[in-house]
Structures are given as structure tokens and as C-alpha cells.
Design brief:
Elements: H1 3-10, H2 16-24, H3 42-48, H4 54-62, H5 67-70, E1 76-81, H6 98-112, E2 115-120, H7 126-134, E3 142-145, H8 152-163, E4 168-170, H9 171-190, E5 200-203, H10 207-218, E6 226-230, E7 233-234, H11 245-248, H12 259-263, E8 268-271, H13 280-284, E9 291-294, H14 304-310, E10 315-318, H15 333-342, H16 350-365, H17 370-373, H18 397-411, H19 422-430, H20 436-449, E11 452-456, H21 462-473, E12 477-482, H22 485-495, E13 504-507, H23 515-526, H24 533-542, H25 544-553, E14 559-562, H26 568-578, E15 588-595, E16 598-603, H27 613-629, E17 635-639, H28 650-665, E18 670-675, H29 677-681, H30 683-687, E19 700-702, H31 706-719, E20 723-730, E21 735-738, H32 745-759
Parallel strand pairs: 1-2, 1-3, 3-4, 5-6, 5-8, 8-9, 9-10, 11-12, 11-14, 12-13, 14-21, 16-19, 17-18, 17-19
Antiparallel strand pairs: 6-7, 15-16, 15-20
The structure holds NADPH dihydro-nicotinamide-adenine-dinucleotide phosphate (NDP), pyruvic acid and magnesium ion.
Length: 761
């Protein structure tokens, strides 16, 4: 497949409206602060606040190191900017930088469980900025400077490093340099080049660019072979205009004056400048097998499609997440600070940065194990031109990079709390990562690689239209909206939604040429169940669930999503009138409960009211199969209020019976029960039953009945802070998902994506 086709296929897009809606919906912005201690009783108040709080105050006054034990300091990083170089958008001011800084803060949390707050300082005066930050040291374990223009950023970072005793790290400089260096090491290896003889051009001579070339030179890259360019062209020795001391340090003796001249015959070009800075002719003039890192955000110096149109021998990377090879500092800052915080480092030094580079470069060369493959684009990546660097969702990053950084900090004497057992530390780190990212990433990427036609049965609803557009825009396939023309158009017009776009189809049941075929099909199924032909005609003409389910059954769509306007059970009955279970399967609902560091699947949350022992065994089998399809190796616990026979009771008997039935079926997954939820989910509690056959805590929970399934998942969601996806329908002969009544557009897209995923052969 030509590279440009591949890039088109992989690239996703979001509309400007979607980006605004995403930020505005619910609580505006992307962050909130949540307490970590209960504040429920008079006693809590006495401990958290006066008088109890005085005790840690005195302890910290006596020994400042204990602030790490008694306050948030040890896991708290400030993301600080003045908005003078926001991405590649330029100087748009402190306030406009806030969405990016909130974004960096949530990435800290999402990827490395580092708590973070954004601070926008409204001054372009270097001294004022330094003074605003220097006194904030007691509040934080680290300072991540962001999007401050060069050369101010060099002075600011240097002075704050001298003034503060916690890590001060300018992400655009060092974060970018670390990732670019790791990608470069791998790209050089793949093209048979080395640090000595490779000729590199760097376009941009600001924060990111200067740090990148300083780091690679520090790692051994031949300085004579590096040409730096800025808006005025090549930075040559003696250039009079647009210079500063940081540029001068990298000025070279050369007759070349323009970027185009510099790039002629170059092996590598790093873009840390602005959208569109590289032309086709420049790329054409580069050496064979050129390495092109177009890292400007949000739009690169040249797109992978444009490069692919010119030449097929390039290794291409951008700063964006929707192309292969994302060279972006998101791969670095969460993990570098994780490691630095965990050893209470006083700074982030060169050894720690180089350790991060090597760790990242090495990870891309390793085989991708099964449980990690899920984070990649449907297919398992292999070290090569389209995979020179891990993706941000790679779950190995959290256990690899912080360990390397912490180790380097200890070796260079900046660790104030060394870690003795680094293996145990690596294991702890894995548990800090929220698994939802890898799960959903895998699902979306698989569908993107196999786009589907999904019918959205309730097409007249505004949130369904928005979901359909998001589905199509994300490259998941074609969204078919079912609805009557007039109300559909009226709702779209009122909501300002334009449905006339690629990837969206509208089908009106009354006008469809397929009505007769659907009616005949439905009548063949229902004629012995008391339905007349005219009843079936009415169902097809007027009921969108029946019409849509028949579309899927008769091959006019691959999958269906419904549920926002009806009760779950009503929608399910409608669908089941048209679609049978998969042969040999039982239809059940599985909910995914995602809590920090852990995912559990709960079944049956949708169909069986009070299952028999036989049905419970079926549910266990269906749920285990579903777990595998999502990349989890199932450990199934059949739950009850009792554990292995105590206390005795009739309800637990059914679960015990189900375990015996599974024994006779010789299934190929781990299961045991009956047991309480505490035993299933807590390794120490499980140890009290050494005969328990599960090799670890359960990740699939079979509930004794629908009420306990529903109550427990809803409690997890409301009280436990879990994200719950589902119920996801499993076992139907065609792929249908039912969203919950009143679901928002993002929930509906998720359900549509799951429906499409299940339709992928
Ligand atoms: N992928 C990633 O992880 C990251 C990417 N970046 C991207 O790098 C770019 C620069 O960011 P940063 O270093 O923080 O910003 P700075 O403001 O510090 O530096 C910008 C530099 O780019 C130069 N420049 C701007 N336009 C052009 C052009 N058309 N041709 C040549 N040089 C140009 C400027 O030249 P002059 O000195 O003459 O004004 C300046 O040297 C941005 O697009 C940003 O998004 C940054 C950090 C991380
Ligand atoms: C990624 C980043 O930090 C930037 O583009 O500025
Ligand atoms: Mg930045």
C-alpha cells in the first residue's frame, strides 16, 4: 500500500466544533481537584483542619523533608507558562495558553499518576516571571515550564534551577529533545547511519530546537554536521541579524544561506518551527532514505501525505497523534517527573535525560508482547520505518522510563530518597496506570483499520446526530441515521448540524425500497408468535429499532446502536424480535468497570433476571470469551454473599452448582466460586483460601443476579469513581449495542465503536 494511502487511512480528524464542545461540556475545562481524605465527620475535620493539622505543621517546620509524607508536595507538579510560544501558534498570551496547560496537567495524571495544576503567569518580563515562580517551591515537587518563547525560556529555566531545590524542567526544550533524540537514534540505526557522519539540518532555533541539538551533540553527534536555521535562514558564523548567544553557539562556517540550500543532500531534517516550513522541493533535494521529523504543532512543517507523494524512502515523524511515529514530548514529561518525584530528586540533570532517551529508544526495539499489542493500531508493530518510537498509550512506558530516570538520579547523587528495589518499583509503577486508555485505543484503532457501516436507529435525536458525525469524522466508518426527513432536518437546522458530509447517510424507513424485504423477513420470524403481516409492516414502517435491526440482519449495515430514547429492556426486546443469539451462545450484558490501575468486567448486567446454575455457567463462558476479545486473560469469580460455603444459603448454592457445571464443560479459562467480592478482588483475602483456583485476583465477576450486577456497577460509578462502560451486549447473532436512555454523544460514539468492533470479523 502506498504510504500516502496508509497515512490517509490512519489519520483521524476532529472538527473545530467538536474541540470546543469537548472543552465546554459538563464542568468547563479538563481538570478538577478531588480530596483524598474523607471529610465527613467532626473527627475528620479535627484531624484535617484545626486542631489536628497543627501537628504536621510542626513536624514539617522541624524537618522540611516530612512535607513529602504529610502533604501533596511529593506527587504535585506545576505546569507554568506565560503563553509566549503556545505550540506553534506563537505568542497568544497567558490566558489563551490555559487549554494547553490543563491538557499537560491531565496527561501527567493519565499517563503517570502525577497530580498537576496549571499556572498561567501574565507577564512577558523575564524577571517578573522568575519572581512569580521562585517562591512557589514549597507547594510543588517539581516545576514543568511550558510554551515560553526563546531566548527568554533559557534565562528563566537557568535562573529557576539555581533558585529552587526541586526539579525545574522546560518541557519544550528537554522533553522534546529527549523524544527527538530517541527517535533519531532509532531512525539512524534503521538507515545504517551513525552520529559521526550524518548531516542534520534543524529548522527553528528556539526553545525546542536549541535543546534538541544540544542534547544530540552531548550524546556524540558531530557538531560540524549540524546546520541550524531560523526565520532568517541559515545561522552561519558572523551572521549579523536575528542572533542571540544560544544561536551563536551553534553557528557554522558555511556558504549556504537558505533553508533550501541547507537541506540539499541532508540526511536528517528536524522541524521545530512552523506549519508548512518545508516545501516539496526541499524534501526532494535530501539524501537517499532521508529522516524527516516535522514536529511543529498542531500542524507539521510538511505532512506525511505530502512527503509520500514526493518520495517513498523517507522515515517520517510528526508531533501529532494521528500519524505513525509521534515524536512529541508527551512521551517524556509524565514519566521523567514520575521517576524524579519518586526519588525526591533535587533536579533533572543530563544523566537523567540521557537515561530517558536510551530507555525510550530501547523500548521501540523490543518485541511488543500480547498485552501491549492492544495499545497499537490493530496490528502488532515491529521496529521499522513506521515504528521508531513507542506510542503514548504503550503501557510499558510507565514501568520503563521512570525506573531509568530514578536510577540515573541515584547514580548522580541528586536523589534525596533512593529506591533500593528497582524491580519492585517497576511493578508498582505498572499498577499506577489507568488501563482504560489502552482498552479504548485498541478498540478504536481496530475499527479504524476495518471501518464499518453502523446504523444509528434514533437518527432524529440531536445527540445521536452529533455522535454519528463524530463516528464518521474519526474514520470509524459510515454512520447511517434512521429518521423521517422533516423532523431530522428541523433538528439538525436548530442545532446547527450539517449532515451533508462524507460518511453520513440518512435513511427514511417510510421511503426505503427495503421495507418489503424487511417486512417479509420479520413476518417469517413472528408469524407463529401471534403477529399478522400487517403488524410486521407497522413495526418496520414506524419502529426504528425493528427497521434498523433488519437492516443489519439483511446485510444493509454491519452494526447498530440504539437506546437513547427507550428503556434498555424495551430496546433489547425490539432487537431480539429481529435477531437471534449467535448459534451456541447466550445473550448477556457485560459492563467494564475501569478504576485506577484496574479493570473488571461484570456480568450479566442486562439480560438474565435470576439466572439458574446452568445459565450462570453460560454467563461465565460468554463473559470470559468477551474478556479475551478485549485482550484480558480471564480469571472468573462467581460472586455471592458467601465464600466457599460460608455462610450457607440457598442463593449461594446456585453459584456452587454453576462452578460444578463449568467443571464438567472443561472450559479453557480460570474460574472459581462462590466467593465474596472482597475475596475475588483482594489478594490478601484470597490467600486465606489457599485452595482457590484463581492464579490472581479476578478480572471477570459473574454476579448471582441482575439486581446485584446492576446495583454494584452503579455504586462503583457513583461512589467508587469508576468509569463504567456498558452494559455491552454479547452473544447476539448480529452486532447491536444499546446505549443508556439519555446517553450523551460521547457515550453513543463509544457504543457505536463497540458495535463496529464486534462486527469486525
Ligand atoms: N513535537 C513536540 O513535542 C514539540 C514541538 N514543538 C514545536 O516546535 C515549534 C517551536 O516551538 P518552540 O521552540 O517552543 O518556540 P520558540 O518560539 O522558542 O521558537 C520558535 C523558533 O522557530 C523559528 N521559526 C518560526 N517560523 C519559522 C520558519 N517559517 N522557518 C524557520 N524558522 C522559523 C523561530 O525563528 P526566529 O528565531 O528567527 O524567530 C524560532 O527560532 C512549535 O511549532 C512547537 O509546536 C515544540 C515543543 C515540543
Ligand atoms: C508538544 C508541545 O509541547 C508543543 O508543541 O509545544
Ligand atoms: Mg509545548
Amino acid at each position: 500500500m502506498p504510504a500516502s494511502d496508509k497515512a490517509d487511512r490512519i489519520r483521524t480528524s476532529v472538527t473545530e466544533q467538536e474541540a470546543l464542545d469537548f472543552h465546554a461540556q459538563g464542568r468547563p475545562g479538563k481538570l478538577e481537584i478531588a480530596p483524598t481524605k474523607p471529610m465527613a465527620t467532626q473527627r475528620d475535620l479535627s484531624l484535617a483542619y484545626s486542631p489536628g493539622v497543627a501537628v504536621p505543621v510542626k513536624a514539617i517546620a522541624a524537618d522540611p523533608g516530612t512535607a513529602y509524607d504529610y502533604t501533596t508536595r511529593g506527587n504535585m507538579v506545576a505546569v507554568i507558562t506565560n503563553g509566549t510560544a503556545i505550540l506553534g501558534l506563537g505568542n497568544l498570551g497567558a490566558l489563551a495558553a490555559k487549554p494547553v496547560m490543563e491538557g499537560k496537567s491531565v496527561l501527567f495524571k493519565r499517563f503517570a499518576d502525577v497530580d498537576s495544576i496549571d499556572l498561567e503567569v501574565d507577564t512577558e518580563n523575564v524577571d517578573e516571571f522568575i519572581n512569580s515562580v521562585r517562591y512557589l517551591g514549597p507547594s510543588f515537587g517539581g516545576i514543568n515550564l511550558e510554551d515560553i518563547k526563546a531566548p527568554d525560556c533559557f534565562i528563566i529555566e537557568q535562573r529557576l534551577r539555581e533558585l529552587m531545590d526541586i526539579p525545574v524542567f522546560h518541557d519544550d526544550q528537554h522533553g522534546t529533545a529527549i523524544i527527538a533524540a530517541a527517535g533519531l537514534i532509532n531512525a539512524l540505526e534503521l538507515t545504517g547511519r551513525d552520529f559521526k557522519n550524518t548531516r542534520l539540518v534543524c529548522n527553528g532555533a528556539g526553545a525546542a530546537a536549541i535543546a534538541c541539538i544540544e542534547l544530540i551533540k552531548a550524546m556524540g553527534f558531530n557538531p560540524e554536521n549540524v546546520t541550524l536555521c531560523d526565520t532568517k535562514g541559515v545561522i552561519y558564523q558572523g551572521r549579523p541579524e536575528g542572533m542571540n548567544q544560544w544561536k551563536s553557539a551553534h553557528a557554522v562556517k558555511t556558504d549556504r544561506r537558505t533553508l533550501a540550500e541547507a537541506m540539499e543532500g541532508a540526511d536528517v531534517v528536524l522541524g521545530l518551527s512552523q506549519k508548512g516550513a518545508f516545501t516539496a522541493d526541499m524534501i526532494r533535494s535530501m539524501a537517499a532514505n532521508p529522516i524527516i521529523f516535522a514536529m511543529a504543532n498542531p500542524d507539521p512543517e510538511i505532512t506525511p501525505e505530502e512527503v509520500a507523494d514526493i518520495r517513498s524512502d523517507a522515515i517520517m515523524a510528526t508531533g501529532r497523534s494521528d500519524y505513525p511515529n509521534q515524536v512529541n514530548n508527551v512521551l517524556g514529561f509524565p514519566y521523567i517527573f514520575r521517576g524524579a518525584l519518586d526519588v525526591r530528586a533535587s533536579s533533572i540533570n543530563d544523566a537523567m535525560k540521557i537515561a530517558a532517551v536510551r530507555s525510550l529508544a530501547a523500548l521501540a526495539r523490543e518485541d511488543v508482547p500480547d498485552d501491549v499489542a492492544a495499545a497499537y493500531q490493530g496490528t502488532r508493530p515491529r521496529f521499522g520505518a513506521e515504528y521508531i518510537i513507542p506510542v503514548p498509550f504503550d503501557p510499558r512506558l510507565i514501568s520503563a522510563i521512570p525506573v531509568a530516570v530514578a536510577k540515573a538520579a541515584m547514580e548522580t547523587g541528586v536523589a534525596r530518597k533512593p529506591i533500593t528495589d528497582l524491580d519492585a518499583y517497576a511493578r508498582e509503577l505498572s499498577a499506577r496506570r489507568d488501563p482504560i486508555a489502552a482498552t479504548t485505543q485498541h478498540l478504536y484503532e481496530r475499527v479504524r483499520n476495518h471501518p464499518k457501516r453502523v446504523v444509528f436507529a434514533e437518527g432524529e435525536e440531536e445527540q445521536v446526530m452529533r455522535a454519528a458525525i463524530a463516528f464518521a469524522n474519526q474514520g470509524l466508518g459510515t454512520a447511517i441515521l434512521v429518521g423521517r426527513d422533516d423532523p431530522l432536518k428541523a433538528t439538525a437546522a436548530r442545532a446547527g448540524i450539517d449532515l451533508d458530509r462524507p460518511g453520513i447517510e440518512v435513511v427514511n424507513a417510510r421511503l426505503s425500497t427495503r421495507v418489503e424485504a424487511y417486512t417479509e423477513y420479520l413476518y417469517s420470524r413472528l408469524q407463529r408468535k401471534g403477529y399478522l403481516l400487517r403488524d410486521c409492516q407497522r413495526l418496520i414502517n414506524t419502529d426504528r429499532n425493528h427497521f434498523s435491526a433488519c437492516m443489519v440482519t439483511l446485510g444493509d449495515a454491519d452494526a447498530m446502536v440504539t437506546g437513547t430514547t427507550r428503556n434498555y429492556s424495551t430496546a433489547l426486546e425490539d432487537v431480539r424480535r429481529c435477531i437471534d443469539p449467535q448459534p451456541g451462545h447466550r445473550v448477556i450484558g457485560v459492563s467494564l468497570a475501569l478504576t485506577r490501575g484496574r479493570t473488571v468486567l461484570v456480568a450479566d448486567t442486562a439480560v438474565h433476571d435470576m439466572p439458574t446454575a446452568e445459565e450462570l455457567a453460560d454467563i461465565a463462558e460468554e463473559a470470559a470469551g468477551f474478556a479475551r476479545s478485549f485482550g484480558y486473560e480471564p480469571r472468573v469469580a462467581l460472586l455471592a454473599y458467601s465464600t466457599f460455603g460460608h455462610p450457607t444459603g440457598e442463593r449461594s448454592e446456585r453459584l456452587r452448582e454453576a462452578v460444578k457445571i463449568l467443571d464438567t464443560r472443561r472450559v479453557d479459562f480460570e474460574y472459581d466460586g462462590e466467593m465474596g467480592a472482597d475475596v475475588a478482588l483482594n489478594a490478601h483475602r484470597m490467600e486465606q483460601y489457599p485452595f482457590c483456583r484463581l492464579s490472581g485476583t479476578a478480572n471477570v465477576l459473574v454476579m448471582p443476579a441482575i439486581h446485584s450486577a446492576s446495583i454494584s456497577t452503579k455504586m462503583l460509578q457513583e461512589l467508587g469513581g469508576s468509569t463504567v462502560m456498558g452494559p455491552i451486549l454479547v452473544g447476539l447473532g448480529k452486532s447491536v449495542q444499546i446505549a443508556s436512555m439519555g446517553a450523551k454523544d460521547t457515550d453513543i460514539v463509544n457504543m457505536a465503536a463497540i458495535a463496529a468492533y464486534n462486527a469486525v470479523a
